[in-house]
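To the structural biology subgroup,

Please find below the input and predicted structure for Fe-S cluster assembly protein HesB, which we are adding to the shared reference set this quarter. The sequence is reproduced verbatim from the submission form. If anyone notices a discrepancy with their own records, reply to this email rather than editing the shared folder directly, so we keep one authoritative version.
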Amino acid sequence: MLTLTDQADAIVTSLVTNQTEDNEAGLRIQPAEETDGQQTERFAVRVVDGPQPADQVIQGEGSPVFLDELVTDALDDKVLDANVDAEGTITFQVLAQR
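Predicted structure (tokenized):
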């Protein structure tokens, strides 16, 4: 199952609470849209009001992360990390579990 680093958990919670006051809201990870007709190994993230019926819910210390059913296998043995740069841009990274 996907796990979150402490930093990713804090950043997800901050991102979600800054965008909505909905108590059921979380960050949803889904497949990225194809570019130029080619399938990519990338994922898209967005704040949503709640999970879709088939989403896997990952609950850390803060806001939940919802995994689209199409990405659960790819992220099953991964760790989600996140960073914020000096300009406030959030970057998520998917790392191998140790």
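Summary notes: The mean pLDDT is 91. Residues 56 and 67 are 5 Å apart (CA to CA).

Regards,
Lab coordination
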